[in-house]
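Private note to self, pasted from the team thread so I don't lose it. Backbone tokens:
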């Protein structure tokens, strides 16, 4: 990356560094036909603006190459974001400069707002400037440079093929079961594909099949191995694997017992054992020997695709790299051990590649792996409208900053676990930091206190005072511990006129010795007791006053 100074400026208006042409890359916006090319700063700007332009093209209006651009070597505005390759003008001939909304209709504006919400402030719209209004202009958002949230957003919402995971709420629904059926060659009923769809989606996501080549290869290989998801178990009885010590079949009957199962045909005792250990470590099965103890479970809808995940990512960890290169022969050998059914795999690969973006919709969204306990819940998401689902998703996934007064200076957003963690952080982080610094003298915690105590960020004056107070208290405690005890004890003398009280034992003797055989004796006894009690009270009051003085 080669930075430059333009018109005396090292950073553009959105605080992204000015860069030269070699620091930018020409890309074709996904989905544009005819193709539209943009020259964007490499790295985060390219990932975000390419995907945003693709969403603009798909949902707002088709892009035109002749009046869309990003990086420029010069500009009439000295701090222009075009100089850093972090701002794009899209279809400028339709949206004149300095005009609010500038040719966008109400539906288009609503769509742009929905897309911007999805991008979590990583993209800013020039239409929202106070002046000048620039509705054709989109750029990297403010506070995105060197902000961890930017990388986090890309990891969550930008696919490897350049598209985002955005799907407008009112976009025509796609029957994903039909997409799966088409990819698999319609070998079973649509209802059967609909039953298998959740497991297929789980497998694709967990196997990191996140671009067209990977998904197409998965469909081609699984399609051949399972006959288009007809079979979850090898048709042959497995006798041919008897005595195959290379796959761990060392006991009589292992061939039949551990024949190929699951859509990818996991075969052999050794593979069943390795799969079991891995699946148990992932919390997917109840024991570390589950599939060796229950081999037939690997052919069930519930567990079969777990075997495919393991084989694709663990047993053969380089499959996705070969997919990216389009190496269908290499992937076939990795899965099959040879080239059995190779023509069928090639035909399926070409067919699925031709399905394009629609095939990738099978990977959209986050699909959790099944746990060991079957669920009977239908799930509440089905009761929500698409708009409500989007709002809920944005609330859960939205990034938040720590509320702790002892957060790092310039820390920014820290996660998206939700409001509970957000609030707990405020108290727990302070307490833990204090205990580590004061009790254990943790260098990291002490350094954090000093960092916060000396910060000058607006609105954090109280945080600085709190951190400094903690440091002062720690210093006082350390000084007190280091001061040696005095060699002599000074005892304050009791004044000579200090009132005295009868010993407690004398009070008891007075009470017990008084005659009680008559009313006069009882009266005398009580008078003496009252006198003694009054004497004790006076002595205690005098002692208290003396101590306070």
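Design output:
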């Amino acid at each position: 990356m080669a930075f430059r100074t333009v018109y005396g400026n090292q950073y553009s208006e959105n605080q992204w560094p000015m860069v030269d042409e070699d620091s930018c890359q020409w890309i074709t916006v996904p989905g544009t036909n005819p193709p539209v090319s943009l020259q964007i700063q490499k790295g985060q700007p390219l990932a975000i603006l390419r995907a945003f332009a693709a969403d603009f093209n798909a949902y707002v209006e088709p892009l035109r190459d002749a009046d869309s651009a990003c990086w420029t070597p010069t500009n009439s505005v000295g701090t222009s974001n075009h100089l850093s390759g972090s701002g794009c003008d899209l279809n400028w001939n339709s949206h004149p400069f300095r005009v609010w909304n500038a040719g966008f209709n109400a539906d288009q504006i609503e769509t742009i707002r929905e897309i911007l919400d999805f991008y979590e402030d990583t993209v800013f719209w020039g239409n929202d400037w106070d002046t000048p209004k620039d509705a054709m202009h989109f750029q990297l958002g403010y506070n995105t440079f060197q902000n961890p949230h930017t990388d986090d957003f890309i990891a969550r919402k930008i696919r490897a093929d350049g598209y985002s995971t955005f799907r407008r709420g009112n976009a025509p629904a796609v029957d994903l079961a039909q997409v799966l059926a088409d990819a698999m060659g319609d070998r079973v009923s649509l209802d059967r594909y609909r039953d298998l769809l959740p497991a297929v989606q789980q497998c694709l996501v967990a196997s990191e099949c996140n671009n067209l080549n990977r998904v197409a290869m998965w469909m081609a290989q699984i399609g051949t191995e399972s006959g288009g998801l007809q079979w979850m178990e090898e048709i042959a009885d497995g006798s041919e694997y008897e005595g195959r010590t290379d796959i761990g079949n060392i006991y009589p009957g292992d061939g039949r017992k551990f024949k190929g199962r699951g859509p990818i045909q996991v075969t052999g005792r050794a593979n069943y054992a390795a799969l079991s250990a891995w699946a148990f470590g992932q919390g997917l099965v109840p024991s570390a020997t589950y599939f060796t103890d229950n081999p037939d479970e690997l052919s069930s809808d519930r567990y079969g695709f777990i075997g495919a995940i393991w084989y694709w990512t663990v047993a053969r960890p380089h499959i996705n790299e070969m997919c990216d290169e389009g190496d269908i022969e290499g992937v076939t050998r990795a899965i099959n051990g040879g080239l059995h059914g190779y023509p069928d795999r090639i035909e399926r690969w070409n067919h699925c590649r031709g399905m394009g973006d629609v095939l990738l919709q099978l990977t959209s969204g986050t699909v959790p792996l099944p746990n060991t306990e079957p669920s009977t819940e239908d799930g509440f998401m089905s009761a929500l409208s698409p708009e409500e689902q989007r709002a809920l998703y944005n609330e859960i996934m939205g990034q938040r900053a720590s509320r702790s007064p002892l957060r790092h200076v310039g820390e920014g957003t820290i996660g998206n676990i939700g409001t509970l963690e957000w609030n707990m952080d405020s108290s727990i982080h302070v307490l833990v930091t204090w205990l580590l610094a004061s009790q254990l003298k943790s260098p990291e915690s002490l350094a954090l206190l000093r960092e916060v105590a000396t910060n000058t960020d607006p609105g954090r004056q109280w945080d600085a005072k709190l951190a400094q107070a903690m440091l002062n208290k720690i210093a006082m405690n350390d000084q007190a511990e280091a001061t040696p005890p005095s060699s002599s004890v000074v005892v304050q003398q009791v004044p000579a006129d200090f009132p005295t009280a009868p010993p407690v034992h004398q009070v008891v003797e007075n009470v017990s010795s008084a005659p009680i055989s008559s009313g006069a004796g009882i009266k005398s006894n009580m008078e003496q007791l009252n006198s003694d009690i009054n004497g004790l009270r006076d002595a205690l009051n005098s002692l208290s006053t003396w101590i306070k003085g």
